[in-house]
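ugh ok so i messed up the first submission bc i forgot one of the chains. this is the corrected input, ALL of the components this time, i swear. 505 residues overall. if the numbers dont match what u have on ur side tell me asap before i send this to the collaborators (the ones from the other lab, u know who)
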Amino acid sequence: MKIQLDKESRIPLYIQIINQIKAMIFSGALPPEYLLPPERKLAEELEVNRSTILNAYRELKAEGLVHSRIGKGTMVVPYESKTEVSIRPPEHRLTWQYLLSDEACRFNDIRIIEMLRVNGDQPIISFATGMADPALYPVDEFYPDITYDIDKKKRALGHTLVEGCVELRKTIMKMQKEKGIDSLLEELLILSGSQQGLNLVARCLLNAGDTVIVQEPTYIGALQIFSNAGVKIISVPVEEKGMRLDIMETLIKKHKPKLIYVIPTFQNPTGTTMDLKSRIKLLNIAYSNQVPIIEDDAYGELRYEGNTFPSLKALDQYDHVLYLNTFSKTLFPGIRIGWMCGPKEIIHQLTVKKQLEDLHTSTFSQVFLTEFLKSGRFQVHIDESCRYYREKRDTMLKKLENSRIKGLRWVRPSGGLYIWCRLPLNISADTLLLKSKEKGVIFVPGSVFFLNNKGNEYIRLNFTYPTVKEIEKGMMILLNVIEEENKKNQEKIINKDSAICNPIY
Ligand SMILES: Cc1ncc(COP(=O)(O)O)c(C=O)c1O
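and heres the new structure output, hopefully the right one now
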């Protein structure tokens, strides 16, 4: 056993001895049952006090690395005998449910997990996804650009900044500037999907018991995150121009919320869009009540007709808006890249929390995406998608219009991915789903977008994922099922005209 001491060092001698003996035990240089030199002998050898060696051996014993036997001296502990290290079954099986944290018990909603499980292999027509049309995925443009560049290939495989690749952030900053959002590099955080952004916001801004204001109905993922955070969710009804701002103002005064979550453009699920006046009004309410706004702009790029309105972030002059966006709807969801733009103090906090969650967003995705965005193909892709989606939306709308089902109402969206329908009176979306699924068509029942089991009179139909042919066939099937259910109900309704007075909101 060879120990070398540095007597000039500020590290105490006994610690130096411990560290070196430990290193020798861990490396195997001192095997199990190796007899350490007697204290007095080692003290002489190292020219130190005997108490220094005593202290070192005592610490090593306390850590269980050596032990002393009377008459034998101090030795490295032996491995346990073979029988002792064999696997012995526990007395009782571990019950994992009893180990769950409060947070896990508070939130156990698996609806999104189930939604993502539905895959394209099943012979089913799905109006239930929130996805782009896979036929439009820019596969050829996405892959070849970096195949020749070995440096880029290597960069794509390494770590990157928690905040996201600088080149991607700069490219997004440029894109945003064209839409009136001026930001600095430190004000932009790349996310592993905008869902992560919502979760980070909840972790950084919300305590259990706080209140948040949301639209009703709204994106299920946001409802889940707020529920998981243990906050009180106050809903403001959606109307044609986004949300009932008069009601919101009263609720803000009463509940003093910590934040407002809003999807101002082509809202999920209703497809409604706030006009300029409502946007300005909302900002003024936020300013006068000192409440920040989380603006979720997942669908803003996908406009099929009408005027484009500036985002709340573009209108915001006093740093009240945290802007959230994603490439999941415009490109494809598997890329898992979104971004958040806001005041640098909060972006810094979100970055600190993001590092806990995933270190950083996949470099691979970021490098590919940067190349694609810089090639200028993104806007071409959006224009092409909008052309296709407009046709698909119109096919679905036409089917609805031609159906002439009494009491069936819907919102005509100017963009986005969904048509929001209100079913004729007394038809439950859950029952309808069971019946239409049997016939090969699925959709999302409206209750998913409400709290407290409300909204079962609504359904959300996605028109971007299915092909035009599937929309035609699927709508025929679905509308027939609605018609059948309606007939059954009509017989029960004494005043038949009451079914016509069925407002959409
Ligand atoms: C309004 C809204 N925000 C966020 C998301 C989550 O998107 P991402 O795939 O970027 O996590 C969705 C997905 O459907 C959404 O509809």
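quick check: The radius of gyration is 31 Å. that seems consistent at least. The mean pLDDT is 91.
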